[in-house]
Amino acid sequence: MTADQPTSSGSIALVGGGPGDVDLLTLRAVERLRAADVILYDDLAGDEILSFARPDTELVAVGKRAGHPSPKQQEVNRLMIGYAKLGKRVVRIKSGDPSIFGRADEEIVAARSAGVPIEIVPGVTTATAAAAYLCAPLTKRGVARRLQMVTGHDADGQLPADLDIAALADPAATTCVFMGKATFAGLAERLIAHGLSRETPTVVLENLGTPLTQVTAGTLAEIATRLAAEKPRGPCMILYGAAFAGVGKDPTGAAPNTARPPARPS
């Protein structure tokens, strides 16, 4: 994965910051952070990730969070390109992987239109990090033959109207729902109406990659009801499918809310 041929001394790197655990950053991500003259960072890029920046690196917050004031994408594009045209090495760090629901396409198009070299540095996507945290597979022979990732909200914050419900209701698939905590109840209703069992194992991970990680496991119907009632404040990854049968349950069969800090190297 290489950058376009440079036309100036400035450049842009879209860097995947992973789910938040600093030890899940790639070596290339760390190299780009250390070399950056300017870092444009999202709300989910924590202090540990930014600690790789040099003391003279300019840090610019451009985080987007649903329901809160945030820079428009055009402004983010303008900042990236403006700094790069000044000869700066710009890092745009995003949570997870830039190519998965990270609006990377808009930033790539803007950079190329401006003649600024740009590259993507992949990161651990939240979906695979969630499975690792649960110590559960996303695919499972004879049970989950297919993996699908979907966003739970459109540009207006509502459930996208053009979702392929037939595909999302496939009982032999594992589905990973990004940014879906506010709309999952509506999605679950449509899935159940399309024939997906109300008992489909479902897991929500809130604040993944932080010491505040919270896991809630239950059935599709239970999780939909809980999310509608409790409205978690932190970012959530929602996983559902037969591959998660038994995940989060204690020996008595209960599915409690559990929390534990992510494992970190000593």
Task: Write up what this structure looks like.
This protein is an alpha/beta fold. Helix content is 26%, strand content 21%. It contains 8 helices and 11 strands. A 6-stranded mixed sheet has the order 6-7-10-8-9-11. A hairpin with a 7-residue loop joins strand 8 and strand 9.
Q: Summed up, what is this model?
A:
The protein has 266 residues and is of the alpha/beta class.
The CATH architecture of the largest domain would be: 2-Layer Sandwich
The counted number of beta strands is 11
How are the strands of the biggest sheet laid out side by side?
6-7-10-8-9-11
Which spans of ≥5 residues are poorly predicted at pLDDT below 50?
1-7, 251-266
- Tell me the domain tally: 2
Mean pLDDT: 89
Distance between the termini: 33 Å
Instruction: Assign the structural class, choosing from mainly alpha, mainly beta, alpha/beta, alpha+beta, or little secondary structure.
Output: alpha/beta
Under CATH, the homologous superfamily of the largest domain reads Tetrapyrrole methylase, C-terminal domain
Strand residues, percent:
15-25%
CATH topology of the largest domain: Methyltransferase, Cobalt-precorrin-4 Transmethylase, Domain 2
> Topology as H/E string?
EHEHEHEHEHEHEHEEHEE
